[in-house]
Amino acid sequence: MSESKNVSAITDADFEKDVLKAEGPVLVDFWAAWCAPCRLVAPVIDEIADSYGSKVKVFKMDVDGNSGTAHKYGIRSIPTIMLFKNGVVVDQVIGANASMIKSMVEKNT
User: Which is the catalytic residue, given 7, 27, 28, 38?
Assistant: First the structure.
């Protein structure tokens, strides 16, 4: 799933507590094990988690096992990376575009 100790898996059950009620920005990577572009973006997510440390919480959500949250946020293509602040989506990137993901995090932290 992730090489970084700063990236945690999240489930539908934990989403409200860990993302929506979190202090500060939270990055969520919606992915699936069978998704090749998701595997390509994984090192970028790890790099962001390691670079930003305590400034941004980073989670990965497997959409196959957590369809409730994916459905709620209209996830139709993966990878979809969403940035939340105060329980609200403030930005998102669909696809494995490393520079767009990094830019999204920089402008929102």
Answer: 38
